Amino acid sequence: MPKNLKLSLDGNEFEVTLTKVDREDLYGTVEIEAFDEKGKPAVLKVLAADGKTLIEKGGTALAAVNEKGDSIERSELTAVDLDGKEITRVESSFNQVNELKKADVDSYLGLVVKSVYVLDAAEESDIEYLKQHLASKQMYIFPFSYRGGLDYDSAYIVGDEKNDAFMIVGKDGDLEYVKLNQTGVLSSNEEQDISADDISFDLL
Amino acid sequence: MAINISNSQNRDAVVAVEGLLGKQEIRYVDAKGHPTGNRRILKADSEHELPILMKKQKTLEKVAQLLIKGDPEIDIELTGMFLTDTSKVYVSPNGIVHLVEEYELIYKPDGELRERRLREKTAQNMNSDVPVRWTGKFVKKQEAVRKFVFTNTKQVVHINGLTFDFLYQMAEDLDKKESLLLLRGGEKGDEPIVMNRGGKPYNAFLEGRVKDSSYLLLLHLSNMELKRPQGVAANGR
After folding, report:
1. What is the helix, strand, coil percentage profile of chain A, to 5?
2. Which one of A77, A90, A108, A191 would you mutate to disrupt binding with B, by most B Cβ within 10 Å of its Cβ?
3. Are the Cβ atoms of A179 and B213 closer than 8 angstroms?
4. Are B163 and B13 in contact (CB under 8 A)?
5. Which residues have C-beta within 8 Å of that of residue A51, sequence separation ≥ 6?
6. How would DSSP label each residue in A177-202?
7. Which of A103, A105, B40, B148 could form a disulfide linkage to A141, CB 3.0–4.6 angstroms apart?
């Protein structure tokens, strides 16, 4: 049974359920079947830089390393902020009432999107007050963490054209206005093949 | 990455595109307070995975006995090595495949197979001889955010003084309109943007902002509308 998320807008509290929305839910999926010259099935593997070591999916891992390149146990690591202060863990947003604040479209457009949820009123709850505000093109923001952790993401509540309510979760982008002396660099690898997993077809 | 982009006067220039990253405000330190990082390492190569061990030992029980007695899943020379410059390859029972034939199986959202067809890799059209076109089609920001999910955002930046003026002017025009500009690629200027050969097609929108003598040009990419999926009724699936 999914948990309800408690929201508060202008002092009105209500509970919503979250349903994750992926591209696949809207447009379907594409799988790739591959065959060699003789019609035998082929699968994607990772080839190491030595040109001969083949690695299956799941055959790699991320290891924490120190400045010397020696691996360290994750339990020995401490998360700190930019000033070097130890970070206090944040609570799951499901364990508290989340107060919605007005957001502007420019800050929303700087969001690096991670996930999208459609919001519905939980049993015995009413979100008409929220929907009325969304219909007038208002959007809201609150800090969100699904399970709790080191920091919050930003969650924006936005209405669509049919006035369904959505929650778009992500990290605020590191936007930087650029001046004349801040030139970019053109990389030389403009064209490259990508993983077959990245292929999609239905465009909107 | 580069983009060949035209402005409202149909003048074009090749400029740089950089990924927009989330703000990084957390880092990890070791017990002495020294910074740490992450490296990708090899856990096991294909020759030490379960299917190969099974092929040699025939039964899971024998594999289990082998695992109790020793470390057959570990290659002492390879396991734990840092991985850099890896590539993806197709492998068949005959080894690495150099001439591969790919088919796409296209499924509807309900899981039903819609089509099986030979895969054709679309060429990228972001930095080709034909510039990405300024279509003159604008969508108000307020309207766009209620219609599309921008699943990928990039920042367009100049590479020299000339292109600074070119992009600053673009950003200023867009800032005044408070709108996103629809961008299109290809000869006819009617194609979605494809960044890499065989990659995803995106509807691309350009947003511009200016502040004093600096500018911000964001390329918003969307392959998903903001809407409730069919079959997802109110209060869940």
Report:
1. 15, 40, 45
2. A191
3. yes
4. yes
5. none
6. -B-TT------S-------GGG----
7. A103
Determine the distance in angstroms separating the CA of A157 from the nearest CA of chain B, rounded to an integer. Answer: 10
Task: Tell me the two tokens of residue A30.
Answer: 């594409």
Q: Which of A35, A19, A172 is nearest to B100 (CA)?
A: A35
Query: Which A residues in the span 83-142 are in contact with B, Cβ-Cβ below 8 Å?
Result: 84, 87, 105-106, 108-113, 116, 118, 120-123, 137, 139
Structure tokens at A175: 């936007």
Can you tell me the distance from the alpha carbon of A102 to that of A142, in angstroms, rounded to the nearest whole number? 9
How far, in Å, CA of A202 to CA of A32, rounded?
15
SS3 of residue A173 by DSSP? strand
What is the least distance, in Å, from the CA of B225 to any CA of chain A? 6
In the CATH scheme, what architecture does the domain B2-20+122-225 have? Beta Barrel (2.40)
B133 contacts B170 by C-beta, under 8 angstroms: no
Residue ranges of A 33-62 with Cβ closer than 8 A to chain B? 33-38, 40-49, 53-56, 58-62
**pLDDT, tens digit only, all 237 positions of chain B:** 899 999 999 999 999 999 988 887 889 999 889 999 999 999 999 888 888 888 888 899 999 998 999 888 888 989 999 999 999 999 999 899 999 999 999 999 999 999 999 998 889 999 999 999 999 999 999 999 999 999 999 999 999 999 999 999 999 999 999 999 999 999 988 899 999 988 889 999 999 999 999 999 999 999 999 999 987 776 544
Question: Quick one: closest CA in B to A195, which residue?
Answer: B88
User: What ipTM score was computed for the predicted complex, to two decimals?
Assistant: 0.86
In 3D, which of A175, A180, A176, A157 has the Cα closest to residue A167?
A157
**Across the interface, which of A26, A63, A175 has its CB nearest the CB of B109?**
A26
Tell me if A116 sits within 8 A of B226, measured CB to CB. Answer: yes
Report, in angstroms and rounded to the nearest whole number, the Rg of chain A calculated over CA atoms: 23
**Considering only CA atoms, which of B227, B145, B230, B237 is closest in space to residue A18?**
B237
Give the CATH architecture of domain A1-26+85-174: Beta Barrel (2.40)
Where do you find CATH 2.40.290 in chain B? 2-20+122-225
**What are the sequence ranges of the domains in chain A?**
1-26+85-174
